[in-house]
Amino acid sequence: MTAPVLSATDVSMIFGGLTALKDVNIELHEGQILGLIGPNGAGKTTFFNCLTGLYTPTRGTVKLHGRTLPSDPAAVTVAGVARTFQNIRLFPSMTALENVLVGRHSRMKQGPVASLFHGPAFKKGEAAAKARGLELLDFVGLSGLDDELARNLPYGDQRRLEIARALATDPSVLLLDEPTAGMNPQETEAARQLIFAIRELGIAVVVIEHDTKFIFSLCDHVSVLVQGQLLVEGPPEVVRGDPRVIEAYLGKPPEEVQAEVRQYAEESPAERTQVIETVSERTQVMKPIREEGGQQ
Amino acid sequence: MATLLQQLINGLVLGGLIALIALGYTMVYGIIQLINFAHGEVFMVGGFASLATYSYVLPDGLKSDWWFALPLMAIGGALVAVILAVIMERFAYRPLRNAPRLAPLITALGVSVILKEAVRLWYPGATAPVPFPRVFVNKTFTFEVFDGSITIGSTAILMIVVSIVGAIILQTYITRSRMGRAMRATAQDPDTARLMGVNPNRTIVLTFVIGAALAGIAGVLYGIQITNVDTEVGFLYGIFAFTAAVLGGVGSIKGAVIGGFAIGLVKTLSGQYLPGGTQYDLVWIFVILIAVLVFRPQGLFGEPERVRA
Amino acid sequence: MTIKDAVRPFARPLVIVGGVLAIIAALLPWATFTLNEGPYPDKATLQFFDAPFAVSGFRLHTLILGVAVLIVAFAPIPVRNRIQRALGWGLLAVSVVNTLFILFGGGGLGAVTAIDGAFAFGGVVGIIAAVAIILAANSGVIEPIPHWNNKVPTLVAYAALVVSFVALLLLVAMMLNAGGQGGVGNPYAGPIFLSLLGFLAGVLGALHGIGLTGWISRLSDDHKWFSVIVLLLCALALPFTEAGTDYWMTTAANIGVYAATAIGLNIVVGLAGLLDLGYVAFLGIGAFVAANFSGAAAAKMGFELPFVVAAIIAAIVAGIFGAIVGSPTLRVRGDYLAIVTLAFGEIFKKSAQNDIGGFTGGANAIPGVPPINWFGQSFDKPLTIGSLELPSGVLYYVLIIVLVALVMVVFANLKNSRIGRAWIAIREDEDAARAMGIKTGQAKILAFLIGATLAGLAGAVFAHKTSTVAYDSFQFIESVTLLAAVILGGMGSIPGAVLGAALLLVLPEKLREFSDYRLILFGLALVLIMRFRPQGLVPDKHRRAELANEGAEGVPIDELNVPDDTPGGAKAEVAR
After folding, report:
1. ipTM of the complex
2. Chain B: partners with 3+ C-beta pairs within 8 Å
3. CB distance from B307 to chain A under 8 Å?
4. Distance from C-alpha of B39 to C-alpha of A48, rounded to nearest angstrom
5. Interface partners of C (3+ CB pairs, < 8 Å)?
6. Does the structure show a pLDDT above 90 at B115?
């Protein structure tokens, strides 16, 4: 097998006394779509933040093409890892095209002096960036919307614009944080097609999602993160049937959970909230899984 | 040595005053993340209001009885400050709750200019410093130490006592009472607090009210200590107090008090011992502020802000 | 709602009544005094008082607005309500200003008065007319602004631009001249000026409603260079108009200094979203540096540098300080940064007050900075070209127009570049900007550096123009004034910064009788703008679209992130 594009080795993240991630390992190969699933609060977004330099992992390393990534989001992007955000974070009062052009920022050269004088070289670079931006808007399906303000776009289009903006940084790895959250089935399908198309561009993709059906139909490889630890990983067919995954999602029987809560209630408040959180999250996640089971 | 001790005492007195004002800053910032620039002016208005209480409300026969005059003036100052703060919150800040962050800050600047100018224009004689009566017992205590003597006035002692007692009551109120809990909840997450049945508007108004009341009392104390009030002091002490709040960590009661005393000490000590003397004490305060913000942005007792993603 | 519903059936007659009442209001003094053959009030000073049709000043305003309302009411115009609403507000402003002045200032203005100015009868009629028109216009649907096609032959576009810019020039001259220079000489300067302002606001509102101003603005976007040149020529032509007096040239030059500084501040605040509350310090640094190299007696440097060299040094020094002040942005966020900048401003003031290093003269200031002198022509003397004598101060005016133009180009070019986009991205969402590969720290320091450089440049001109550079010209309130200019005009917008600076400097000149209330009105204006028009008078294009249809409360950005179940199924299909 070829060397991985992106590899995370023994990544741990500790906030104060709370271990958000513990020894997480991931390898991403060229042309791969990797799915990262797990209940709410399992540490998926924290893991993304470690990969993109927003957090510095307490332990462990993240390497891109064998080189350790710096812990600075801007430098990570320059190195070739782009991301989208769980709650869309576009630049709301810029147009769609301008949003994408901001993505081009690190691939453009013009410094302050060139920007001041707008010489021929500046204009050429600007025109090339605009052309590339329009191309990308086309690619994600936002043709003709380049002059719309980001905040005026419908929700699904905002998600797509965020992907176009990330692609504008010419990444070799694209990290998508819940790209289909809040989408209807048609939009979800469109997003799936788009992610396949991105893979065709030679970009490796990591996707966080709650929608397990979406993940299993999209990814080549799935990793399950539970309470900050990698529980199971492998091809979708394998992961889907793993009893541990089912347990992690459905939780223990209710009596047992209640006993656990009672037990923790007598202990320190910090731990208590933590457990109550996980309990409530489990019940939250249960619903979609059951529905999905009903359909099959 | 005596000079040092004397300056330490002067610093603590000034610090007590700054701490009282800083509490208002820190509470308001803690709950709605607004630097209420006008808070310094509220303190100034409190001073003038207490003076007005003395001049126009207090019967002549009672003017020399400090146990009656002083509380009445404090109530007058605090009351006007509170009314002002409530109006300010309701008509200037609340409509901007969801606006971009610069908007309320600029509004606060505007309010601050309005308050200062209004007092200057319409309070009789306020274009220059207005003399403030010595209502409190006017005694000084002198102690012989090492190479000289130090003096403490009775108003100075009152100032330190009031600021510390005020902070302790406030801290207790916030940690123990129902409304205090509501305040902390609103500060953490207004939306969730609302879902839990906390009325955020009422909580925020209460925060403004407490801050303004303390500033009003600070106004009286300033008056009896310095023996005049001036429209200029609002801006200056507002800045001192804000610096103190930032130094201590915005949102922390303990931080505001310790920050207040620290700023008071820095001002008196740098005025005494550093080159440039009192001409540059303000500069040293700001140098410390900038250093704290750069090296410990959350202040001494504040919690670090975590990056969201 | 209920008022609207009640008015709606009578909207049309109401508008007509309003228009007629406005005309009556304009003609009332003539009716009162001429038809009754009564004596003129002693305090009435305006001429044309007995002539019914040769009206002038605000009587003309009222008359024109009334006639315009009637024309719009009867002509087949698609945006009738919108136009009438604008005209109605203009009429209201004119009537209120004059009524108040007659009631409180004595009946000098004449036109709308009963006997001896004791009661502003005509003014009240005007107010009633205005209210009727506004009510009627608002009861109907306020139509969207029509979009005029801006794809017109180049010649037509050029002609339209020239006409509108020349009109703008004449308008500015007229405004400056309205009521004279104010002060003791003319006690009516304030009301006459305010009345004209109200009238112009009404007319411009109406033109905007038709879609004309939008069209012109799009034309000028399409023909950027042509517009810039014409605008520059128009600005340079101001000395040849009725406003070409010593007084207005000097005032206009002052406005220019502040406008240039405000545009620099606009980079920091408007583009990068960093609040700077000590910005005037950079103007001060530039001024002190230039003063020290000017050969003034109190200057620290014993030699004199040519103005251009001194100005460049001033700009560089200010820029260095800008970078220093901006460097805490690497660690300090948002509101705290505002405090750091405020602290810096105060440190600057204190240091200058104490004559730090002997550079600032302390309380004595640095007096006697010589005027700029090029080719034997001193800038503070009148300029004579052939037989044409131009007022003194005209050279400073020209210099400052060039400076403002330069600063505008810097702003516009930076804004439409990779760096400008990075600034705006930081303003919108700093974390996302970093995730896009923007080195936010560098970008923010650069914003501070460039903004400060521009202010330093303006400061150099300021030093020579005012001849005395004193620390107390650079106080906190000046920083707030600059900020207010940026906000009043519209953050991120260049015409806005110029307009804001102009208004904030012209208004005090015109309203000397209210000079005591200058600051309080100014504070009130800040609060009201933030409350009712946070996007400013001439918003930036992006913000214009975003804030145009919003109420005063503003829609939080987060609301857009709420998952929406109906984003339009057809659009959702990926086009591939």
Report:
1. 0.88
2. A, C
3. yes
4. 42
5. A, B
6. yes
